[in-house]
Amino acid sequence: SIANVQGYEIIDSRGNLTVRARVTLESGIRATGDAPSGASKGTREAVELRDKDGSVKGAVDSINYYISPALMGLDVREQGKIDRIMIELDGTENKSRLGANATIATSIAVAKTASISMGLEPFMYIGGARTHTLPVPLLNILNGGLHAGNMLKIQEFMVIPVKFDTLKEALIASTKIYKTLKSLVTERYGKIYTALGDEGGISPPLSVTEDALKLVHEAIKRSGMEGRVFMGMDAAASDFYNPEKGVYEIDNTSKSPDEMIEFYVDIASRYPLLYLEDPFEENDFSRYSELQSRIKNVIVTGDDLFTTNVRYLRKGIEMKSARGVIVKANQIGTLTETIQFFDLAKDNSIKTVVSHRSGETEDSFIADLAVGLNSDFIKTGAPSRGERTSKYNRLLEIENEFGLEYLGRRL
Ligand code: PGA
Ligand code: ZN
């Protein structure tokens, strides 16, 4: 049973403070869980408690003074009960009292501690007896938006290694494309422009979407991967939407929502686009539906649209807004609620994308979460920077040890 939960501050990949929780059992077994942190957050996300000075002391206090006493003596394997206690203790709609950073760090630490106490890999503990599969990675190799210093409005340009027999081959192909992209940028703009964005992607001095798409496509072709590796984008469109004027400010111009639909349809017709996340601002459920019906082969995906919250996913299902969902545990604040959201998506044949945040730690838990739940995809940045590679390397470790099926072939 749980002896205590300790919260403390650690540093994330952007140099900000974030929360780590450590669960210790009576037996002495213990494990930690970290809260990641977003930059382009959805407005409906659970609240990350942050003090005025930028610290997370308030969230750490939530763990030490409220959560720890409430969980003392409980069986660590009772994840559902533990998460429910934290939800009730918080008592708000959006975890604004305890802080979702406090509750998610604790929730993850609880799951990891339970898996150790049972002698199970975390993915096995999460997924139970079902046969596990390895998700297809969405690798963000070119960064824009709030994650980079350039003028690109689209936040992420991804490569998706599909036609490979193993995850290892898929990741090696992706590293090749990543390095080819770096060479292309060096040739065209100079080495000084190969600086990395927050998620490890290169952030060249571009301002127009088309130029970024061309670069990534060329990197795929030059690496000999055309036809095996596809492209994806996360527009994170709420961040360049002007609500007063009702327009999107992109590519040095303003586009109406209808013009944005044509913009994406055109891109999908000229590039091997498989995945498109948050193409519109987070309230425009009906434009998502319209776009998805126009580009049926592309997995239009909701991140800020749903914020890992079943309430908004139900609306999205009703309106047929998206064929895909982003699953970010810290958007909702507990693992139990995250898995409920995941299951609702699966039950409705919606593709799942277990995802990191732009502010991350070296905790590789989401790799186990993705495998444990048999997620279709995992989104965890470029194949560089330790907080991104920790997830890829954990997936490689799982594949190496357990030889699970790579889902790329089934797509
Ligand atoms: P965030 O962005 O973690 O900065 O919110 C990631 C995303 O939009 O997918
Ligand atoms: Zn997103």
UniProtKB/TrEMBL annotation:
Binding residue positions for Mg(2+): D234, D266, E277, D303
Cofactor binding remark: Mg(2+) is required for catalysis and for stabilizing the dimer. Binds a second Mg(2+) ion via substrate during catalysis.
Annotated catalysed reactions: (2R)-2-phosphoglycerate = phosphoenolpyruvate + H2O
Pathway assigned to this chain's UniProt record: Carbohydrate degradation; glycolysis; pyruvate from D-glyceraldehyde 3-phosphate: step 4/5
Keyword Secreted set for record: yes
Listed GO MF terms: magnesium ion binding; phosphopyruvate hydratase activity
SUPFAM superfamilies from the UniProt entry: Enolase C-terminal domain-like, Enolase N-terminal domain-like
Gene Ontology biological-process entries: glycolytic process
Domain of life (superkingdom): Archaea
Subcellular location, record wording: Cytoplasm; Secreted; Cell surface
Co-factor(s): Mg(2+)
Record's protein name: Enolase
GO cellular component: cell surface; extracellular region; phosphopyruvate hydratase complex
Keywords for this protein: Cytoplasm, Glycolysis, Lyase, Magnesium, Metal-binding, Pyruvate, Secreted
Active site location: E199, K328
Ranges of residues in domain Enolase N-terminal: 2-126
Taxonomic source organism: Metallosphaera prunae
Summary of the function given for this chain in its UniProt record: Catalyzes the reversible conversion of 2-phosphoglycerate (2-PG) into phosphoenolpyruvate (PEP). It is essential for the degradation of carbohydrates via glycolysis.
Binding site for (2R)-2-phosphoglycerate: Q155, K328, R357, S358, K379
Domain Enolase C-terminal TIM barrel: 131-411
Protein EC: 4.2.1.11
Residues holding substrate: H147, E156, E277, D303, S355, H356, R357, S358, K379
Family recorded in the similarity comment: Belongs to the enolase family.
